[in-house]
C-alpha cells in the first residue's frame, strides 16, 4: 500500500503501534534489568500511587525490517525486534522565574515524559561515545553507536529506526480537541493577547495551529517552555539530537536520529489535530527557505492495547503525580526520580547544589561533552556560547522557528563554564 508522505496519521499500521507500546509497557510490568536490585524499589516507588496519574513515554529502537510473508495463504508480517532505550514519566514544568533566578544550568525545566525521554536519549548517546572512546578494541562499537573512520558516529545497526510511545496525545496543538471536549465549562480563557509570542497553555483553544507554552493551572506561574506538540514538531527538523550530541554524529547518518513513529493510544488521537500540528501548519511546500531539506516527517500510529498497569492517562479526578521517573535499560545506572527540577528529596530552594541536580540538566550534559571533546572550550565562556557554536543546528532551529511564526523566546538559563583555560 502506498502511504501518502504528508499524511501524519497512519491507522493501517496499528500492528507496529501495538508492538512499540508493548515494548514499553512490558518493562513497566516486569522491569527485567532491575530485578532484585535496590533500584527496583526506587523505580516502583516513582510510579503513580493509587490516587495519582501521570504520563508515560519511552523511546524504542526497531531493528530489522517488517517482512510480509504468506503462510498457508494468509498474509502475516514478521515484525522488527524492539529494544527499549528510555522510559520516563511526568507532567510538570518549572516556572520561568524560578529557572531565571536559580538554575544556572542545574534545574530541569521541562519534566513532561516525552521531553525527558529525548534528553535521556542524548545522555545515552554521550555515555556510549565515552565507552567507545575508552575501549581499546578495533570494532569501535558501543551499545547503540559505532564510530566511523572519520571519528564521527552513526547507529551501530543501520536497520534501526526510532519510535516514541506516549500514553496521551502530546500537550499543545496536537491535543486541542481533547481539551475542548474535556473542559467542563467550555469557556475559553480570553484574558490574553495573541501576537508573535506563544499562546499560554490552554488559553484560546479554539485558535489552532499555533505554538503554545506548557499547560498549567490558570493561577500557576508562567512557564516559557513550549508544549510537547511544538517541541516534537521541531524534532522533525532537528532530529532527536541536541546541542550536546549533534557534532559527534556523522552528518551522512544524521537521518538515523529522526523519529519514525510516535505511538499514541487510539482513543487519544484526533486525526485532524495531528495532521494540522505536525504537517499542515508548517506549509513546507510554500516555504522559500531550504529548511525543508532537513525535514523528516514522522507518522503517528495508534495502539489499541487494553488497560495500562497504572494511571498513565490524564484524569481530573486524581492528583497529578509530582515526581518523574527517568530510566534507561541500556545503561541501568541511569535511574533517577525527579521532583521540582532536581533529584527527589533534594532541595530546590535558593541555591541548587550540584549533588541535587539531575544527570539530564544542562550543566551535567555539557560536562560530559567537555570531557569527550576538550576543544569545545575554545572561545567559549558560557553555555550559550557553546550552544551558539553548534552552527548548523542553530541554523536549522532558527529556520524552523520562522516557519512556526509565533515561537517566541525561551527561558534564559546560562552559566559560565568553569573548566575554561
Ligand atoms: Zn507535554
UniProtKB/TrEMBL annotation:
Annotated ranges, domain A to I editase: 86-407
Stored InterPro entries: A_deamin (IPR002466), Tad1 (IPR042935)
Domain of life: Eukaryota
GO molecular function, a single term: tRNA-specific adenosine-37 deaminase activity
A UniProt-annotated Pfam family: A_deamin
GO BP terms: tRNA wobble adenosine to inosine editing
Protein name: DEBR0S2_19812g1_1
Organism: Dekkera bruxellensis
Amino acid at each position: 500500500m502506498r502511504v501518502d508522505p504528508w499524511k501524519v496519521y497512519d491507522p493501517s499500521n496499528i500492528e507496529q503501534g501495538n508492538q512499540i507500546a508493548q515494548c514499553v509497557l512490558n518493562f513497566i510490568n516486569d522491569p527485567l534489568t532491575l530485578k532484585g536490585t535496590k533500584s527496583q524499589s526506587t523505580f516502583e516507588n516513582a510510579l503513580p500511587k493509587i490516587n495519582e496519574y501521570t504520563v508515560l513515554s519511552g523511546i524504542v529502537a526497531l531493528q530489522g525490517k517488517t517482512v510480509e510473508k504468506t503462510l498457508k495463504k494468509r498474509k502475516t508480517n514478521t515484525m522488527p525486534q524492539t529494544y527499549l532505550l528510555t522510559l520516563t514519566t511526568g507532567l510538570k514544568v518549572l516556572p520561568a522565574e524560578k529557572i531565571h533566578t536559580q538554575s544556572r544550568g542545574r534545574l530541569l525545566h521541562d519534566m513532561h515524559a516525552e521531553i525527558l525521554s529525548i534528553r535521556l536519549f542524548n545522555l545515552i548517546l554521550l555515555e556510549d561515545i565515552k565507552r567507545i572512546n575508552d575501549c581499546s578494541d578495533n570494532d569501535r562499537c558501543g551499545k547503540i553507536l559505532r564510530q566511523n573512520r572519520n571519528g564521527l558516529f552513526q547507529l551501530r545497526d543501520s536497520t534501526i529506526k526510532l519510535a516514541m510511545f506516549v500514553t496521551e496525545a502530546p500537550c499543545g496543538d496536537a491535543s486541542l480537541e481533547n481539551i475542548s471536549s474535556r473542559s467542563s465549562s467550555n469557556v475559553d480563557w480570553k484574558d490574553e493577547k495573541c501576537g508573535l509570542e506563544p499562546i499560554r497553555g490552554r488559553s484560546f483553544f479554539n485558535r489552532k495551529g499555533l505554538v503554545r507554552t506548557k499547560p498549567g493551572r490558570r493561577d500557576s506561574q508562567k512557564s516559557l517552555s513550549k508544549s510537547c506538540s511544538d517541541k516534537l514538531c521541531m524534532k522533525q527538523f532537528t532530529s532527536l539530537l541536541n546541542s550536546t550530541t549533534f557534532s559527534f554524529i556523522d552528518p551522512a547518518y544524521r537521518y538515523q536520529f529522526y523519529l519514525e513513529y510516535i505511538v499514541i493510544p487510539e482513543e487519544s488521537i484526533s486525526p485532524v489535530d495531528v495532521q494540522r500540528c505536525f504537517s499542515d501548519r508548517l506549509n513546507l511546500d510554500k516555504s522559500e527557505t531550504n529548511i525543508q531539506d532537513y525535514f523528516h516527517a514522522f507518522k503517528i500510529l495508534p495502539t489499541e492495547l487494553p488497560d495500562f498497569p497504572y494511571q498513565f492517562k490524564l484524569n481530573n479526578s486524581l492528583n497529578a503525580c509530582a515526581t518523574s521517573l527517568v530510566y534507561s535499560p541500556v545503561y541501568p545506572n541511569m535511574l533517577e526520580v525527579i521532583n521540582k527540577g532536581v533529584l527527589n528529596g533534594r532541595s530546590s530552594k535558593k541555591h541548587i547544589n550540584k549533588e541535587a541536580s539531575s544527570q539530564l540538566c544542562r550543566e551535567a550534559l555539557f560536562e560530559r561533552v567537555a570531557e569527550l571533546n576538550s576543544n569545545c572550550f575554545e572561545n567559549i565562556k558560557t553555555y550559550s556560547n557553546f550552544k551558539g557554536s553548534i552552527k548548523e543546528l542553530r541554523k536549522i532551529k532558527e529556520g524552523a522557528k520562522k516557519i512556526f511564526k509565533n515561537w517566541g523566546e525561551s527561558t534564559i538559563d546560562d552559566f559560565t563554564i568553569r573548566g575554561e583555560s
